[in-house]
Specification:
The structure holds two protein chains of two kinds. Chain A contains 14 helices and no strands. Chain A is mainly α. Chain B folds into two domains: about 50 residues, no CATH class; about 230 residues, MetI-like (MetI-like fold, Orthogonal Bundle), CATH 1.10.3720. The chains are: A mainly alpha, B mainly alpha.
Chain lengths: ~300, ~300
């Protein structure tokens, strides 16, 4: 934009130059839009196909050419998925895990991040390095020892195992530390002179100032726990404890020919994330930008 | 005179030292809740996985020392060789193609356009959508016999369309496509933030000097983006080496062993065959590969990354 305006400025006084510039700009814009719309189609059509298929009869799902808007929509599919498998239980389990893990994650990471960002203590940099290193090491490298440990603790097939594994992530500490560092020290120094304790500063100054970062971490944690497939796959066996992703997978394997129902169930499993994403996407974008660029 | 004597005599240093100790204790109290969980459930298993790679264990009988047996076994294990090859195959295509696609999208979006935010939302959405749901819809769309993609190809006159995830040759390319499709929105956001951080005066100066738009891209945009490109390449490489869920839900590692990658092999050895020691040895190989590549990337950083 900026460079173009300069170019436009140069063309001033030369009518021909301005005309060709306009033309070039117009063609460029059109190509840009065409490309963007084509890419959007690639990204979104699978989901629209999912929606359309979820409202069809199984034998209509693969009919070609695709009938995007079904002639007689089978709304009933959305009722049947709840009775075929205990979808409601899966939803409830996932919601429970998501809320608990997100809460613990926010509480413990913001607490630790405050010390890493604002306090002096021996071993701070070494400890922080260990946190960063653990982000870089693939989780799969130590998933087996984790599992063995949980089995020793007799926690396999409990929700507690997943909570313990996911509530203390290094990523949360890293993300919040990056944000806390950017908050100037003036306010907290003034509060310290007034006799406020570090805990007071954390609660009354840091947390209120960090709402965007906390929102970002909340959303990231929510989405990753909601979508987690591998954790529940390894740890949860009994049907009454399974989560939505595992339940969806089970549904797909059990009723592999019920195409429309599979699509309906998949779509339902996406809805909480869609709502969250559309309402808070600003925080996603900001969160990625801060945690990424400053890292 | 030692410092201990000073403090005994009640010099002002004692107060300062006590204060400092108190400060540190407060700091540790902030760290402790997170650190306890992190140490027990992440650090300890990390160390344990290293030990386990030198052990034989089936989870039921006693652990026995294996020495280098597990690593020697790697050389005899054909599936390991295939998984190693497949992992590199996946990484070699996924990393550059995702980077190119996300940079391309970011450049398109970094212009004054109507509906910019809507486009950004659409591109980013697959990243937050659950893998299980995404994989099932991909498998249906790419179904070799009934899927709309192949029906379209046949309608367009392609006589023998690829059998996608059902064929040995096409399974990996299909998985790679799905992975690029799902991940590029995330890296696009990173690139977009970096593009918006490039100071306008650089472009203005270049325009005054008569630089063409290609020259501006080549000599301003690309060099200014190198820190992001560096970061993206590291994140993407690590993420690609540990690819697992996507493959498990799309192909399960098949057909045959066509998409069996290192983590799938690790998972199968541990949770299907209960060879925990051997499984950890495979995981160690993965770890060493990722470590070496990351170190190499950092070593090469100075040659091409440009920090202002």
């Amino acid at each position: 934009m900026r460079s173009l305006s300069v170019e436009a400025g140069r063309g001033e006084g030369k009518a021909q130059g301005r005309f060709s510039y306009r033309l070039k700009l117009g063609v460029g814009k059109t190509i840009t839009y065409v490309l963007l719309i084509a890419m959007s189609a690639v990204m979104i059509l699978p989901f629209l196909w999912m929606l359309s298929a979820s409202l069809k009869l199984d034998r209509e799902v693969f009919r070609f050419p695709i009938e995007w808007i079904p002639a007689n929509p089978q709304w009933d599919n959305y009722v049947r998925i709840w009775t075929r498998i205990p979808f409601l239980t899966f939803f409830f389990n996932t919601a429970k895990l998501t809320v608990i893990i997100t809460f613990l994650q926010l509480a413990t990471s913001s607490f630790a991040a405050y010390a890493f960002a604002k306090l002096q203590f021996r071993g701070r940099d070494t400890l922080f390095l260990a946190y960063i290193a653990s982000i870089a090491i693939p989780w799969q490298v130590y998933m087996v020892p984790q599992f063995i440990m949980m089995r020793r603790l007799d926690l396999v097939d409990t929700h507690l195992s997943l909570i313990l594994l996911q509530a203390f992530s290094a990523f949360g500490v890293f993300l919040l530390r990056q944000f806390f560092i950017s908050i100037p020290n003036d306010l907290s120094d003034a509060a310290r002179i007034d006799g406020m304790s570090e805990y007071g500063i954390y609660f009354r100054i840091m947390l209120p100032l960090s709402k965007p970062a906390l929102a970002t971490l909340t959303i990231f944690t929510f989405v990753s726990v909601w979508n987690d497939f591998m954790g529940p796959l390894i740890y949860l066996n009994s049907e009454s404890k399974k989560t939505i992703q595992l339940g969806l997978r089970m549904f797909i394997q059990q009723y592999s020919a019920d195409y429309a129902l599979i699509m309906a169930a998949s779509l339902v499993s996406l809805i909480p994330v869609i709502i969250l994403f559309l309402s808070f996407q600003r925080f996603f974008v900001e969160g990625i930008a801060t945690s990424g660029i400053k890292g | 005179m030692s410092s201990a004597q000073v403090s005994k005599q009640g010099s002002p240093f004692a107060g300062i030292r006590w204060n400092k100790l108190k400060q540190e204790l407060i700091a540790y109290s902030f760290i402790l809740p997170n650190f306890l969980g992190f140490a027990i459930f992440t650090l300890v298993p990390m160390v344990f996985s290293l030990v386990l790679a030198f052990m034989h264990w089936d989870g039921a009988n006693a652990i026995t020392w294996a020495g280098l047996d597990n690593f020697a076994r790697l050389f005899r294990d054909e599936t390991f060789r295939i998984a190693l090859f497949n992992t590199f195959y996946y990484v070699a295509f996924t990393v550059p193609l995702t980077m190119a696609a996300s940079l391309g999208l970011a450049l398109l979006l970094n212009q004054p356009l109507r509906g910019r935010n809507a486009f950004r939302t659409v591109f980013f959405f697959p990243y937050v959508a659950s893998l299980v749901a995404v994989a099932v819809v991909w498998n249906m769309i790419f179904h070799p016999a009934m899927g709309p993609i192949n029906q379209l190809l046949i309608w367009l006159g392609v006589e023998d369309p690829p059998r996608w995830t059902a064929s040995v040759e096409w399974a990996m390319p299909t998985v790679i496509m799905a992975s690029i499709w799902k991940g590029m929105g995330y890296y696009m956001v990173l690139y977009l933030a970096a593009l918006q951080g490039i100071p306008a005066y650089l472009y203005e100066a270049a325009a005054i000097d008569g630089a063409s738009s290609w020259q501006r891209f080549r000599y301003i945009t690309l060099p200014m983006l190198t820190p992001t490109t560096f970061f993206v390449s590291i994140m993407l490489t690590i993420a690609s080496f540990k690819v697992f869920d996507l493959i498990l839900v799309m192909t399960g590692g098949g057909p045959g062993r066509a998409t069996n990658v290192l983590v799938i092999h690790t998972y199968n050895m541990a949770f299907r065959e209960f060879r925990y020691g051997y499984s950890s040895a495979i995981a160690m190989v993965l770890f060493v590969i990722v470590l070496v590549i990351t170190i190499v990337q950092f070593r090469m950083e100075r040659r091409w990354v440009n920090y202002m």
